[in-house]
Amino acid sequence: MKKLYTVLAVVLSLFVAIEAMALRPCEIRNHVTAVLRDASTPKDCTIGYALDDDTFSLRAGGAWVALTLSGTTLLDDAQIVLGTGSDAVISYDKTVQAPDTLIIAVGVDSRQLVIFEKHATDLAADLTVAQRTDPTINLHSADSTDANDYILFYMDQTNGVIDVGQGSVSIPDPVVITGDLTINGAAGSLTFLDGDETMVIKDNDANSFMVTSSGAAAFVTFDTTTDGETLILSGTTTADVLHVDVGTAQFDESVDITGVLAVTGSATVSTTLSVTQGANLAIPVMALHAIRFCGQGPNGATPNYMGPVLLDDTEADLAFGGAGCDALDSTTETTADAPWHASFAFKPVAMVCTTTCGIDDDMTLLMREDVSDVTGMTCDITLSGSAAQCSVRLTSPETVAANSALAIRMVNDGSNNCSAGDVECIVYITY
Fold this sequence. Notes:
Distance between the termini: 120 Å
Number of domains: 4
Number of strands: 26
Structural class: mainly beta
CATH topology of the largest domain: Jelly Rolls
Order of helices and strands: HEEEEEEEEEEEEEEEEEEHEHEEEEEEE
Strand content: 35-45%
Largest sheet: 6 strands, antiparallel
CATH architecture of the largest domain: Sandwich
Radius of gyration: 48 Å
Shape: rod-shaped
Helix content: under 10%
């Protein structure tokens, strides 16, 4: 009975408060229940106490709110309304949502739910929360003095977004992505910093990993088929598939080419180049033609010039050291030089020279056109008492104009006389 008296005292206190709110009691129901009605509206407000479970209950407009001795219980569809203008609502919704769902409706003032650590001054700190377009969870760091220490989670009506006020999004644990990953950053968007990182792709799959672009099919494909692992580069007929900007592309193992090999620059084979019978080896011919230059050597440091053996020369003594060759040199360049062809322009790609001069000097040989040097077409012979030779190959030869007067300039670096020694150079050309 003492507990009942206490309940009645509480109810009477409520009556007093409700009277001040222009409400009046209308009836008393079972379990000590008071039903109150607003004088201006027909809605009932019921306050009750259940003796069997020590529960206060409040009902307004049909929804019950149970107040227990151990805490407050809001029953289904009851709402906690926050803000003078009913700005935000928390409710366990059973009527609208299916299945029953706890809902938090944020207000339109900021559309944010901000979570931060409670300190003495935190509620007074201005976090400069901006109004969002969509409902947003704003999780702030323990430092409430820095308004940029936050991470946002929201849906922008197209994509789910994770955004930070400063720094980066850090994920220290492994991540499994079962959908697509799109990176819209600039250069360096995907960066590996720790070293020894490994990308593991699916085993025994012909298309295990592919690199594509929005306008092209896969141009890099990793084929992990067992015992047939392959890296496939797919390009177009108008662009290079494999291009090295710095250094040289080097293959240190055997390379099998089953299609066409096209070499537009230079290629160096350090061991053996094997071509299977019937294979189509399409390379630009590095020596479509050879132009011979022959004559006798220079007298010391005085330059001597030897002219080309022309296409219509038929003398029998044009062999190396023959009288015909001996007649093709002169210390006057314009006497020795001559056009090789009136209509053909060409590119000299290589030159090899030899001499029988046996003195101990170095002889420099240089191709000339119209009394000007042909860039890069020069080599030095070290004379060591016996026949010797030198050679040069160019990767980017210049074009020699048609009808240019050609000659080879010869000079020794010492005073020894090589005018009795025979000299010959062969220049290989392409077009």
